Structure to design on (277 residues):
């Protein structure tokens, strides 16, 4: 028994060491990912369920590391948040998406809304709304083309500052979405206090809409509630026709997911916009 215990301990420390090494490699790589030009933006279409036309796109960052290969944002964004690299990376994402939004509006996509994910660290910067205003002026972008996606935990980390920043953003004419709604903390008080225009229903709820009567009931209720609050629901992670059909019958206005299109590089999303607007 003693021997086995030692083996387990050995296995555990090795595993831990590998994870710590990996973490360090990722943190190091991230610190020069921007300078090395390793980041790009992909865009995923967002669809008006009733008309089946595109109303917007969500920008999703991709990291192709020379050393580590392609790394998922689900892995590297949390590390960038820990190390602080999220601030320059987040600013780059915002600028790149806003510049592209301006190009698209000039190409004639007059009502397109480009959504950008914002981390807690960005949202609790007291000057954040001023940066956004500066970028809009620099690129000549009208605020109605920009939506910022915020998770509840981001806002909760410093309620006072994030509330102030969100209010300033809305005064500028920027739209706000609460992301990953329906998972994590209880979200109702946030909906009541913060000036969101969009509620993004988390994929984990949407994926079971056809098989779980509980998830169906929750989605129906959130859609009803959103109407009373003057907000619009975007269903995330729609993968099947059956899910889309149920959402349509519930009068869910918008959807996003592999059924309509995966996140894609610039050329491809631009072609998609041309054929779906
Ligand atoms: P998110 O904001 O909830 O983005 C939605 C994620 O779901 C994306 O993963 C997208 O590719 C994926 N997805 C969309 N439709 C479907 C579907 O039908 N089925 C399935 N299985 N997945 C679908 P991705 O691109 O890997 O991004 C993961 C997360 O990383 C994002 O979750 C977001 O929290 C974060 N992230 C990505 N880009 C940025 C960024 O520029 N800034 C910040 N702060 N976070 C980002
Ligand atoms: Ca998002
Ligand atoms: Ca989400
Ligand atoms: Ca998510």
């Amino acid at each position: 028994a003693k021997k086995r215990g030692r083996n387990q301990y050995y296995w555990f420390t090795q595993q831990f060491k590998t994870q710590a090494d990996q973490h360090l490699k990722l943190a190091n790589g991230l610190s020069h990912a921007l300078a090395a030009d390793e980041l790009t933006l992909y865009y995923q279409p967002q669809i008006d369920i009733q008309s089946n036309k595109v109303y917007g796109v969500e920008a999703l960052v991709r990291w192709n590391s020379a050393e580590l290969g392609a790394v998922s944002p689900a892995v590297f964004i949390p590390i960038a948040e820990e190390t602080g690299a999220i601030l320059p990376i987040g600013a780059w994402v915002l600028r790149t998406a806003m510049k592209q939004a301006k190009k698209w509006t000039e190409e004639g996509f007059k009502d397109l809304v480009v959504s950008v994910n914002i981390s807690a660290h960005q949202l609790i910067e007291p000057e954040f709304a001023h940066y956004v205003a500066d970028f809009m002026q620099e690129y000549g972008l009208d605020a109605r083309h920009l939506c910022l996606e915020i998770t509840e935990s981001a806002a909760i980390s410093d309620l006072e500052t994030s509330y102030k920043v969100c209010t300033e953003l809305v005064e500028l004419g920027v739209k706000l979405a609460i992301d990953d709604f329906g998972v994590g903390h209880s979200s109702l008080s946030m909906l009541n206090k913060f000036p969101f225009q969009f509620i993004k229903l988390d994929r984990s709820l949407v994926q079971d809409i056809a098989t779980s009567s509980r998830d169906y009931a929750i989605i129906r209720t959130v859609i009803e509630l959103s109407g009373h609050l003057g907000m619009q629901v975007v269903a995330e992670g729609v993968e099947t026709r059956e899910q889309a059909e149920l959402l349509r019958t519930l009068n869910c206005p918008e959807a996003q997911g592999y059924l309509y299109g995966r996140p894609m590089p610039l050329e491809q999303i631009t072609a998609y916009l041309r054929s779906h607007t």
